[in-house]
């Protein structure tokens, strides 16, 4: 099956590589630490974890308690919203809200 | 230039209709996620990321326009799924409709299955065109009459009313999938259906919601050993014991439910041998099958991977009988396509009514048709520019190198945000439904 690379008959060229392999070289140049098995566990596990959000009820309640003292809920910037674990204490705004049901599809309009 | 068509090589595709908003600012909820004709082709259903289903009905051909097939107009629309949050697993469950599958019609009502990542629902769509009037104990506005004021009796009578189409959820099949549902398929026995997620396939009875049988389980004991996932599954169109499922490694397994209760052992394994010298970092990713569809005859099945469409003869496991290049020019762009995640796009594919032509989508709102008999292929575009009523679609061509001819588009000019992932072909006629990001195009052959 042709990959798109052709060799002139009689031409000895060890450097001829298929377009696909050329793309691989490009990728490895940009990301030298990329694992050797792309279709393996890491990629698949990332796919299987879609939708996972992190929420710790302990942190949440502590944040709520602290906030009560300050009489004000801290504002959440979009950047903060993305990191729920670690240093960031989740607040009520961070917890995914149940989105309001949208009234009508524009396809039906 | 002739277009690819069914039965003849001179089908000319014409614009018929387009549904959806014109503005470029697309709300997430409006992204179309599935398109499906029912078994007669009279109804066309779409599902979107906002969890809504819109059903279009084909109008009866009018006598005024004998050369035009009926138009599809809105028949019913409803909210199928709502967003949920699983607090136990900290999992956000999208309301996006992954698949819609129609049940064959048995009575006046229509039934369809719609699914999101976790829950499948059976919807009944029924018409009401009569209303009873003349109750003895109720006024016409619904208020109850004082029984002591009733002096005569009358028999309530049905009177015609404006057609009302009602959609009601008849069954909810929940809590059977740990992973994300990618496929549902109704069995030819019309009693059961399967649902498949990344690692498991379950068999359901349409009447029973609190129980389902697990028929395939590829979850390894140690998740570190996970090497492949299930990407699509479908029942055979007329053998009720047979189904297939495809994997992220480019294989298809055919299973026979008569062989054992748990179909972990396949009856047939379809896999094309790979040339090891051609292997690259991208090989496995682009071999991942995004869709599998049986032909109407049941003799063949079609698979779609990132760059090709393959037709397999069920009697031959060693290699496909036909391979069609969808957009081979992307092979030299795989690095960028990996970086922008496009390499993971899941394109679907479909057969025409007599299995002579297959269709699939591509980028830049292009879609491709391959005529198996005449060995011809054509690239067409779904765009507002070529949306004049009954205007014939002009074939498009991508310039892969060298001098770009007039009317050709170069690979670097392709818009990778304009993807056609979902297409559907009317079961009998040459009518196709093509979904761009948020618009539904309907094309017909020129009569």
From TrEMBL, chain A:
GO cellular component: cytoplasm
GO molecular function, one term: protein phosphatase inhibitor activity
Domain of life: Eukaryota
GO BP annotation list: cell division
Keywords: Cell cycle, Cell division, Cytoplasm, Mitosis, Phosphoprotein, Protein phosphatase inhibitor
Function statement: Protein phosphatase inhibitor that specifically inhibits protein phosphatase 2A (PP2A) during mitosis.
Record-stated family: Belongs to the endosulfine family.
Protein name, as recorded: cAMP regulated phosphoprotein 19
Organism (species): Oncorhynchus kisutch
TrEMBL record, chain B:
One Gene Ontology MF term: protein phosphatase regulator activity
Domain of life: Eukaryota
GO cellular component terms listed in the entry, alphabetical order: protein phosphatase type 2A complex
Database matches in Gene3D superfamilies: YVTN repeat-like/Quinoprotein amine dehydrogenase
PROSITE patterns linked: PR55_1, PR55_2
Species this protein is from: Oncorhynchus kisutch (Coho salmon)
Family named by the database record: Belongs to the phosphatase 2A regulatory subunit B family.
Keyword terms of this UniProt record: Repeat, WD repeat
Quaternary state and interactors: PP2A consists of a common heterodimeric core enzyme, composed of a 36 kDa catalytic subunit (subunit C) and a 65 kDa constant regulatory subunit (PR65 or subunit A), that associates with a variety of regulatory subunits.
Record protein name field: Serine/threonine-protein phosphatase 2A 55 kDa regulatory subunit B
């Amino acid at each position: 099956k042709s990959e798109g690379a052709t060799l002139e008959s009689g031409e000895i060229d060890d450097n001829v590589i298929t377009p696909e392999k050329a793309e691989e070289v490009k990728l490895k140049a940009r990301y030298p630490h990329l694992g050797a098995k792309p279709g393996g566990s890491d990629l698949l596990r990332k796919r299987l974890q879609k939708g996972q959000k992190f929420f710790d009820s302990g942190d949440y309640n502590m944040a709520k308690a602290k906030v009560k003292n300050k009489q004000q809920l801290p504002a959440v910037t979009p950047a903060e919203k993305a990191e729920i674990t670690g240093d960031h204490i989740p607040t009520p705004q961070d917890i995914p809200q149940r989105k309001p049901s949208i009234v009508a599809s524009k396809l039906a309009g | 230039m002739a277009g690819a068509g069914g039965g003849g090589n001179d089908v000319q595709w014409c614009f018929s209709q387009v549904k959806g908003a014109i503005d470029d600012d697309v709300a997430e909820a409006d992204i179309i996620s599935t398109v499906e004709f029912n078994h007669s082709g009279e109804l066309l259903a779409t599902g979107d990321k906002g969890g809504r289903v819109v059903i279009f009905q084909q109008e009866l051909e009018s006598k005024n326009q004998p050369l035009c097939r009926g138009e599809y107009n809105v028949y019913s629309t409803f909210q199928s799924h709502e967003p949920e949050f699983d607090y136990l697993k900290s999992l956000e469950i999208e309301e996006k409709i992954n698949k819609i599958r129609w049940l064959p019609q048995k009575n006046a009502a229509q039934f369809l299955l719609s699914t999101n990542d976790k829950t499948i629902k059976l919807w009944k769509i029924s018409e009401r065109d009569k209303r009873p009037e003349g109750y003895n104990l109720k006024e016409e506005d619904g208020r109850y009459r004082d029984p002591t004021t009733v002096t005569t009796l009358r028999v309530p009578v049905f009177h015609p009313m404006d057609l009302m189409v009602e959609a009601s959820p008849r069954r909810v099949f929940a809590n059977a999938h740990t992973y994300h549902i990618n496929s549902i398929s109704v069995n030819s026995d019309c009693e059961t259906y399967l649902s498949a997620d990344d690692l498991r396939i379950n068999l359901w009875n349409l009447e029973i919601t609190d129980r389902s049988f697990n028929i395939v389980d590829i979850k390894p004991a140690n998740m570190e050993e996970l090497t492949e996932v299930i990407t699509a599954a479908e029942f055979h169109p007329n053998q009720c014991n047979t189904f297939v499922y495809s994997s992220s490694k480019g294989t298809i397994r055919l299973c026979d439910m008569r062989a054992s209760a748990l179909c972990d052992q396949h009856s047939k394994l379809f896999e094309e041998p790979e040339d090891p010298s051609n292997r690259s970092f991208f090989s496995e990713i682009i071999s991942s099958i995004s869709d599998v569809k049986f032909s109407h005859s049941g003799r063949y099945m079609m698979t779609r991977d990132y760059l090709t469409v393959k037709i397999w003869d069920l009697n031959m496991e060693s290699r496909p009988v036909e391979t069609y290049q969808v957009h081979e020019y992307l092979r030299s762009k795989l690095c960028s396509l990996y970086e922008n995640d496009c390499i993971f796009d899941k394109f679907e594919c479909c057969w025409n009514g007599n299995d002579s032509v297959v269709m699939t989508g591509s980028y830049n709102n292009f879609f491709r048709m391959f005529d198996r008999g005449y060995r011809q292929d054509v690239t067409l575009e779904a765009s507002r520019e070529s949306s004049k009523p009954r205007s014939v679609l002009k074939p498009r061509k991508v310039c892969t190198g060298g001098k770009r001819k007039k009317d050709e588009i170069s690979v670097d000019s392709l818009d990778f945000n304009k993807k056609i992932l979902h297409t559907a072909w009317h079961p009998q006629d040459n009518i196709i439904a093509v979904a761009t990001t948020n618009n539904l195009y309907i094309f017909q052959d020129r009569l």
